[in-house]
Amino acid sequence: MGARVGVVGLGYIGSDLVARITRPDSGVELAFAYNRSPGLLTALSCDLILDDLSLAAERDADLIVETAHPAISAKWGVDFLRSGHYMPLSTTALVDDELRANMLDMARRHGHKLVLAAGALVGGSALAMRPEAWDRVKITFRKHPDNLDLSESGIDPSSLQEPTTIFRGSAREVAARFPRNVNTVVTGALLSVGLDRCECEVVADPGRDRAVAEVEAWGYDGGYLRTDKRQPAVGVSGTEMTDSVWYSVRQALHAPGEHLQLA
Q1: What percent of the chain clears pLDDT 70, i.e. is strictly above it?
Q2: With contact defined as beta carbons under 8 Å apart, do 261 and 115 qualify?
Q3: For the structural domain made of 124-237, what CATH number should be given?
Q4: CATH 3.40.50.720 fits 3-119+241-262, yes or no
Q5: How far from 78 is each of 1, 58, 117, 130, 240, CA to CA, in Å?
Q6: Fewest CB within 10 angstroms: 7, 21, 113, 176, which?
Q7: pLDDT over 90 at 222, yes or no
Protein backbone atom coordinates (compact mmCIF):
# COMPACT_ATOMS: atom_id res chain seq x y z
CA MET A 1 0.00 0.00 0.00
CA GLY A 2 1.37 3.43 -0.95
CA ALA A 3 1.35 6.62 1.04
CA ARG A 4 -2.09 8.14 1.56
CA VAL A 5 -2.91 11.64 0.26
CA GLY A 6 -5.98 13.76 0.97
CA VAL A 7 -6.97 16.45 -1.54
CA VAL A 8 -8.96 19.55 -0.56
CA GLY A 9 -10.45 21.30 -3.58
CA LEU A 10 -11.24 19.78 -6.99
CA GLY A 11 -10.66 22.66 -9.38
CA TYR A 12 -8.14 22.62 -12.25
CA ILE A 13 -5.22 21.41 -10.11
CA GLY A 14 -7.08 19.30 -7.54
CA SER A 15 -9.03 17.30 -10.12
CA ASP A 16 -5.83 16.49 -12.00
CA LEU A 17 -4.10 15.47 -8.77
CA VAL A 18 -6.93 13.10 -7.82
CA ALA A 19 -6.84 11.57 -11.31
CA ARG A 20 -3.09 10.92 -10.98
CA ILE A 21 -3.36 9.48 -7.48
CA THR A 22 -6.13 7.05 -8.47
CA ARG A 23 -4.22 5.57 -11.40
CA PRO A 24 -3.35 1.91 -10.70
CA ASP A 25 0.39 2.56 -11.08
CA SER A 26 0.60 5.81 -9.08
CA GLY A 27 2.16 4.23 -6.01
CA VAL A 28 -0.02 6.57 -3.93
CA GLU A 29 -3.43 5.99 -2.37
CA LEU A 30 -6.24 8.55 -2.17
CA ALA A 31 -7.19 8.98 1.48
CA PHE A 32 -10.04 11.38 0.71
CA ALA A 33 -11.22 14.16 -1.57
CA TYR A 34 -13.13 17.18 -0.31
CA ASN A 35 -14.83 19.89 -2.34
CA ARG A 36 -17.23 22.60 -1.22
CA SER A 37 -19.45 21.87 -4.25
CA PRO A 38 -20.22 18.13 -4.13
CA GLY A 39 -21.09 17.97 -7.83
CA LEU A 40 -17.39 17.64 -8.69
CA LEU A 41 -17.11 14.50 -6.54
CA THR A 42 -19.61 12.35 -8.43
CA ALA A 43 -16.93 10.33 -10.23
CA LEU A 44 -15.49 9.07 -6.92
CA SER A 45 -16.75 6.21 -4.80
CA CYS A 46 -18.50 7.25 -1.60
CA ASP A 47 -15.73 5.90 0.64
CA LEU A 48 -13.26 8.39 -0.88
CA ILE A 49 -15.44 11.48 -0.33
CA LEU A 50 -15.04 13.55 2.82
CA ASP A 51 -17.97 15.80 3.69
CA ASP A 52 -16.55 17.37 6.84
CA LEU A 53 -12.91 18.50 7.16
CA SER A 54 -13.07 18.13 10.94
CA LEU A 55 -13.00 14.37 10.26
CA ALA A 56 -9.88 14.48 8.08
CA ALA A 57 -7.68 12.88 10.76
CA GLU A 58 -9.85 9.76 10.67
CA ARG A 59 -8.73 9.11 7.08
CA ASP A 60 -5.07 8.58 8.09
CA ALA A 61 -3.61 10.74 5.33
CA ASP A 62 0.17 10.97 5.30
CA LEU A 63 -0.16 14.25 3.39
CA ILE A 64 -3.05 16.65 2.85
CA VAL A 65 -2.86 18.94 -0.18
CA GLU A 66 -4.95 22.13 -0.31
CA THR A 67 -5.81 23.32 -3.83
CA ALA A 68 -8.82 25.48 -2.97
CA HIS A 69 -8.47 28.78 -1.09
CA PRO A 70 -6.33 30.29 1.71
CA ALA A 71 -9.35 30.13 4.02
CA ILE A 72 -8.81 26.35 4.29
CA SER A 73 -5.44 26.83 5.97
CA ALA A 74 -6.81 29.57 8.19
CA LYS A 75 -9.47 27.24 9.57
CA TRP A 76 -7.95 23.77 9.30
CA GLY A 77 -4.20 24.05 8.73
CA VAL A 78 -3.17 23.55 12.35
CA ASP A 79 -5.47 20.54 12.74
CA PHE A 80 -4.17 18.97 9.52
CA LEU A 81 -0.59 19.12 10.85
CA ARG A 82 -1.60 17.27 13.98
CA SER A 83 -2.12 14.07 11.99
CA GLY A 84 0.17 14.37 8.93
CA HIS A 85 2.14 16.55 6.56
CA TYR A 86 0.36 19.50 4.93
CA MET A 87 0.94 21.19 1.56
CA PRO A 88 -1.11 24.39 1.09
CA LEU A 89 -0.96 25.61 -2.51
CA SER A 90 -2.69 28.82 -1.42
CA THR A 91 0.40 29.96 0.46
CA THR A 92 -0.94 33.49 0.83
CA ALA A 93 -2.59 32.11 3.99
CA LEU A 94 0.90 31.93 5.50
CA VAL A 95 1.22 35.71 5.46
CA ASP A 96 -0.63 35.54 8.78
CA ASP A 97 2.37 35.32 11.13
CA GLU A 98 0.41 33.88 14.04
CA LEU A 99 -1.20 31.20 11.88
CA ARG A 100 2.14 30.25 10.33
CA ALA A 101 3.80 30.06 13.75
CA ASN A 102 0.98 27.87 15.11
CA MET A 103 1.19 25.56 12.10
CA LEU A 104 4.96 25.18 12.43
CA ASP A 105 4.64 24.57 16.17
CA MET A 106 2.13 21.80 15.53
CA ALA A 107 4.36 20.31 12.83
CA ARG A 108 7.37 20.23 15.16
CA ARG A 109 5.43 18.72 18.04
CA HIS A 110 4.11 15.87 15.91
CA GLY A 111 7.09 15.31 13.61
CA HIS A 112 5.31 16.57 10.48
CA LYS A 113 6.16 18.98 7.66
CA LEU A 114 4.54 22.15 6.35
CA VAL A 115 5.43 21.76 2.68
CA LEU A 116 5.81 24.59 0.16
CA ALA A 117 5.26 23.34 -3.38
CA ALA A 118 7.84 24.67 -5.85
CA GLY A 119 5.10 25.61 -8.33
CA ALA A 120 6.13 28.51 -10.55
CA LEU A 121 9.13 29.36 -8.35
CA VAL A 122 12.04 28.42 -10.60
CA GLY A 123 15.19 28.88 -8.53
CA GLY A 124 13.39 28.23 -5.24
CA SER A 125 15.89 25.59 -4.16
CA ALA A 126 18.74 28.06 -4.68
CA LEU A 127 16.97 30.56 -2.41
CA ALA A 128 16.21 27.91 0.21
CA MET A 129 19.72 26.48 0.46
CA ARG A 130 21.17 29.87 1.53
CA PRO A 131 18.30 31.87 3.07
CA GLU A 132 20.59 34.10 5.15
CA ALA A 133 22.80 34.93 2.15
CA TRP A 134 20.31 37.16 0.34
CA ASP A 135 20.32 40.92 0.76
CA ARG A 136 17.43 41.57 -1.63
CA VAL A 137 14.87 39.45 -3.51
CA LYS A 138 12.42 40.68 -6.15
CA ILE A 139 9.72 38.69 -7.96
CA THR A 140 7.96 40.16 -11.00
CA PHE A 141 4.80 38.77 -12.63
CA ARG A 142 3.74 39.77 -16.13
CA LYS A 143 0.33 38.39 -17.11
CA HIS A 144 -2.63 39.00 -19.36
CA PRO A 145 -5.45 40.58 -17.29
CA ASP A 146 -7.56 37.46 -17.96
CA ASN A 147 -4.99 35.45 -15.99
CA LEU A 148 -5.16 37.72 -12.94
CA ASP A 149 -7.91 37.50 -10.35
CA LEU A 150 -8.65 41.19 -9.78
CA SER A 151 -11.91 40.64 -7.89
CA GLU A 152 -10.51 41.85 -4.56
CA SER A 153 -8.37 44.66 -5.99
CA GLY A 154 -10.95 47.20 -7.16
CA ILE A 155 -9.38 47.18 -10.64
CA ASP A 156 -11.60 46.84 -13.73
CA PRO A 157 -9.81 44.42 -16.11
CA SER A 158 -11.40 46.12 -19.15
CA SER A 159 -9.55 49.32 -18.25
CA LEU A 160 -6.17 47.68 -18.80
CA GLN A 161 -5.56 48.37 -22.48
CA GLU A 162 -1.74 48.53 -22.35
CA PRO A 163 1.02 47.12 -20.12
CA THR A 164 0.25 48.50 -16.67
CA THR A 165 2.04 48.01 -13.35
CA ILE A 166 -0.87 47.35 -11.03
CA PHE A 167 1.21 46.68 -7.92
CA ARG A 168 4.67 47.41 -6.57
CA GLY A 169 5.50 46.66 -2.94
CA SER A 170 6.26 43.89 -0.46
CA ALA A 171 5.20 40.25 -0.54
CA ARG A 172 3.01 40.81 2.50
CA GLU A 173 1.21 43.73 0.84
CA VAL A 174 0.64 41.99 -2.49
CA ALA A 175 -0.76 38.89 -0.78
CA ALA A 176 -3.42 41.02 0.88
CA ARG A 177 -4.45 42.67 -2.40
CA PHE A 178 -4.14 39.77 -4.88
CA PRO A 179 -4.44 36.61 -2.72
CA ARG A 180 -5.07 34.19 -5.60
CA ASN A 181 -2.27 35.45 -7.84
CA VAL A 182 0.89 35.56 -5.76
CA ASN A 183 1.44 32.24 -4.00
CA THR A 184 4.82 32.06 -5.75
CA VAL A 185 5.83 35.38 -4.21
CA VAL A 186 4.90 34.27 -0.69
CA THR A 187 6.81 31.01 -1.14
CA GLY A 188 9.89 32.86 -2.38
CA ALA A 189 9.68 35.33 0.50
CA LEU A 190 9.40 32.63 3.17
CA LEU A 191 12.43 30.85 1.72
CA SER A 192 14.61 33.94 1.64
CA VAL A 193 14.40 37.48 3.05
CA GLY A 194 10.90 37.36 4.56
CA LEU A 195 7.50 38.77 3.70
CA ASP A 196 8.29 42.41 4.42
CA ARG A 197 11.62 42.56 2.57
CA CYS A 198 10.78 40.47 -0.51
CA GLU A 199 9.74 42.85 -3.29
CA CYS A 200 6.99 42.18 -5.80
CA GLU A 201 5.82 43.81 -9.00
CA VAL A 202 2.69 42.77 -10.93
CA VAL A 203 2.29 43.91 -14.54
CA ALA A 204 -1.01 43.37 -16.40
CA ASP A 205 -0.29 43.19 -20.13
CA PRO A 206 -3.21 42.58 -22.55
CA GLY A 207 -0.76 41.83 -25.35
CA ARG A 208 0.94 38.95 -23.54
CA ASP A 209 0.17 35.33 -24.45
CA ARG A 210 2.41 33.78 -21.77
CA ALA A 211 2.55 34.26 -18.02
CA VAL A 212 6.00 35.42 -16.96
CA ALA A 213 7.56 34.94 -13.53
CA GLU A 214 10.93 36.62 -13.00
CA VAL A 215 12.93 36.01 -9.83
CA GLU A 216 15.96 38.11 -8.94
CA ALA A 217 18.10 37.79 -5.83
CA TRP A 218 21.14 39.80 -4.77
CA GLY A 219 23.53 38.23 -2.26
CA TYR A 220 25.52 39.94 0.48
CA ASP A 221 28.61 38.36 -1.08
CA GLY A 222 28.01 40.04 -4.45
CA GLY A 223 26.25 37.02 -5.96
CA TYR A 224 23.25 37.41 -8.24
CA LEU A 225 20.51 34.93 -9.19
CA ARG A 226 17.99 35.48 -11.97
CA THR A 227 15.35 33.19 -13.47
CA ASP A 228 12.78 33.98 -16.15
CA LYS A 229 9.92 31.51 -16.66
CA ARG A 230 7.33 31.90 -19.45
CA GLN A 231 4.32 29.60 -19.54
CA PRO A 232 0.79 29.46 -21.00
CA ALA A 233 -1.85 29.90 -18.31
CA VAL A 234 -5.24 28.44 -17.45
CA GLY A 235 -7.08 30.82 -15.16
CA VAL A 236 -4.51 32.13 -12.67
CA SER A 237 -2.28 29.04 -12.96
CA GLY A 238 0.40 28.13 -15.46
CA THR A 239 -0.22 24.99 -17.48
CA GLU A 240 2.83 23.40 -15.86
CA MET A 241 1.27 23.54 -12.39
CA THR A 242 -0.39 20.13 -12.54
CA ASP A 243 2.94 18.45 -13.32
CA SER A 244 4.72 20.57 -10.72
CA VAL A 245 2.22 19.75 -7.96
CA TRP A 246 2.40 16.02 -8.69
CA TYR A 247 6.20 16.18 -8.49
CA SER A 248 6.00 18.15 -5.22
CA VAL A 249 3.59 15.62 -3.71
CA ARG A 250 5.97 12.75 -4.41
CA GLN A 251 8.93 14.73 -3.08
CA ALA A 252 7.07 15.61 0.10
CA LEU A 253 6.18 11.99 0.77
CA HIS A 254 9.60 10.50 0.21
CA ALA A 255 12.19 13.16 1.03
CA PRO A 256 13.13 13.88 4.65
CA GLY A 257 13.41 17.57 5.45
CA GLU A 258 12.89 20.46 7.82
CA HIS A 259 9.48 21.24 9.27
CA LEU A 260 9.14 24.03 6.68
CA GLN A 261 10.21 22.43 3.42
CA LEU A 262 10.25 23.21 -0.29
CA ALA A 263 9.22 20.23 -2.44
Answers
A1: 95
A2: yes
A3: 3.30.360.10
A4: yes
A5: 27, 15, 18, 27, 29
A6: 176
A7: yes
